[in-house]
Structure formats: structure tokens, C-alpha cells
Automatic annotation (TrEMBL):
The keyword Transferase does not apply. It comes from Paenibacillus catalpae. The keyword Ribonucleoprotein does not apply. This is Spore coat protein SA. One of its GO terms (molecular function) is glycosyltransferase activity. Residues 190-362 form the Glycosyl transferase family domain. Keywords: Capsid protein, Virion. Residues 72-173 form the Glycosyltransferase subfamily 4-like N-terminal domain.
Amino acid sequence: MSPVKVAFVTPGAYPIPSGNSSSVERVVEKFVPLLRPSVEPRIYGKIGRNLPRRSMVNDVVCERFHTAKRSAYVANVGHALKKFGPQIIQVENRPTYLLKLKRSNPKAKIWLNLHSSTYISPRHISDTQLRKSFALADRIIVNSEFLRTLVLEKVPEARMKIRVVYPGVETRRFQSRYTAEGEAARRHHRERKGLAHRKVVMFLGRLIPLKGVHHLLSIVPRLIKVHPDLLVVIVGSPFYGSHRTTAYSRKLIKMGERYKKHVRFVPYVPYSEVPGWFMAADISVMPSGKREAFGLVNVEAMATGLPVIATRAGGMQEIIQHGETGYLINQKEIKAELTEKLLLLLHNAALRRQMGIKSRQRVEQLFTWEHTAKRWLKIQRNEVDLKFRDDPEQFDEQIYMEPPPVPDLNQGIAYEDEQVISYDMGFINLEHLKATSQKDGG
């Protein structure tokens, strides 16, 4: 049986491969090659400096186009798709592309893979267009249960189309510090970066208000009173692949200047350098706002054996196990709880190690690119196997059958410790579900 042809259409914001791209392109670059040989994938994206019009990326054909005008980019991709003849076209994070691509390739099934809530917001797409796009999609993939719920609030009629597929991490690149090789790498990075003999709290991400770095900087005075050897390292810039600043990032730098011995800013670094920064840290902090759909950076930090403190927001609640791999803190009490949990971890090296080991284990169990590819292939196989469409009972037996947006905590869910095992092979924190249920009157 010949492999299914699948086209992956990226937004056209960044080329592939690129060390300066967003997580959207990274997800495509890392997991798509793992679909072979079951699938014959092809990637469509932006042409970049020193990149040819067409080349192989990890044994996958990648075709590139100019993207100065997005309408022209989508049209050119549509023409190229006709030549390839895919059975499935997966559009990455741009619902507006579905209408044009379906029009130019009517015989192909069309999937939408949402990486965030940004491009389903009114700023980017009208409610009418959104509903048309979702009606046109044969399958809608989201990267968290949180994003699934958000989508259902906007378009409840799309419920039966939605599947959750978590992104992952390369565990060989993001190695554990709890091996002989990892310990040596950690010593190397700490010495090279001038972090030896310091307790290092790390934030790595974009310097935008949503990420909440100002909360971390505001509690530095309280932390250094107890831990004078503390160094808060802020790695990132407002924009991908750029050192440009904004009013917000300049405000952060001004806040940090008061404590120069305890705060260090490192402008945007290429993705290849990210593992080294996490290896050099002792604790990772992500005080993001409620719109964080997944938070891949938390998985990357956990892969290196770091405990993570993050806000009880968005998809991060599905990654971090409170009290096991780190802590989830409430946004309304963010400064007080962040201070409390940081002081606890800074004081207790054994607890940091215990949580760090569990972090690495959780990543290996749930959040690798191999897991991502496996889940995607199960969805694809159900899509091409038409038997279940004539047999509702067989369809009901599939593990991907969605629970309601806010699950009934007394029915249809398997409990294991303090987690809910979802039918999408993902894990949701039970505490979060209970809180959501109570909020909604459940």
C-alpha cells in the first residue's frame, strides 16, 4: 500500500529550517519527518536567504515561496499542491488559508492545526470567516485541552472534528542533567556563561507583557535578601530572531538595572543555544498570562531536568504537575506565590533534584516528537479508514473520542493519582478541571 500524501502548509512567517523561527515552524520541522514511511509528507513555506526554492529537510521535500504578499503566497502554494496531489492538506495556524486552498484543491481533505488562540481572534478573522473555515475543515488539531475548550466556545458545532496532539521536544538535544554526560555539560555551560557558584532562576521566551517577566523582576529584592547568590537570567527579546526592543522590554531592562549583580539580560539566542541555557539554570519560571495555549518552552526546560514554576494558566496546566514537577501559581496572587515557591526551591537542592528528575520522566512519557507523530498518525489512520463512518459503535471505541468541553467529573473519565487521562492520550490536571467545572456551575 502506497503512503498517504500529506501537505503541510506553514504560515509563511519564517523559513524552514531556521534557528530563528517561531514554535509553529519548529513543530513542523521536528515532527513531520517522523511520519515517514506511513506518510509521504511535503512541507510548503517561506523562501529564505541562502535557501533554494526546493530542497530536502530531514528527508522531506520542502518547497519555498516568496511571502511579501500573503495572498500571492497562498495562491502559489495552491498551484504547487495541484502538482503534488495530496490526499490531506494540513494548514498550520492560519484558518484564513483554508478557504483558498480548498477552492484550488477540492478533492483533498483539509485539516487545520491550531498552535495558539491568536489567529482565531477577531483581530485576525471575523466570526463568519472562522465558522466557514471550521465548517470546511475535515479535522481540527489543537495543541492542548485548553485550546480545545477555547475553540469550542467560539464554534461549538466543530466539536466532533477536534483532536488534541501535544507538541514535543528532542530529548537527545535537551539532555538530562542527571546523567554523567549531562552533569559534565551542565558544568561546562555554567562555567562558560559565568554562572558557577550562583543560584540561577531562568526565564526564556519573548519579552512581551503576556509572558509576565515584570512579575519576576518585581520580587527580586525580596529574593536576594534571603539568597544573595541569586542570579535571575532573562533570555529573549520581543521578536523572534531579532534584538529589536519595545517600550515594554526597555521597561524590564530599567527594572533590572537596579539590581545589576542579580539580573542579567541575554538578547534573543538561536534555538541551538536554548538547551545550554536551561542546563545552566536551577529553576525555570514562566509567569505567563491566561492565553498561553501550550507553552513548549516549559517542556524544553523540563527535559533538561528543571523544576518549573508557571502560572495556573492555559495549556501549562497540562504540562506541569503541581508539587511533582514544579508548581502552578495563581495569577491573582502571582507575586506572593511566585516568591514563596522560589524561596522554597532555592533553599532546598534536594527538592529541586527530585522535581527535576520527575520533570524529565514526564517529558519522556508524554512530550517527545515521537509521541506527537504517533498521535497524529492515529488520527490520520482513522481519517482514511472509512469503516467507522458506517459503524458508530466502532467509532465510539476510538480513544480519540472527545469528552465534553468541561468534562463531567463523575462519569466517563479514568482517574490515576491526581490526573485525568483524556481520550486524546493527553493528561489534564484534575484540580484545574474541578475549578473550571465549579466556575461554570458544574
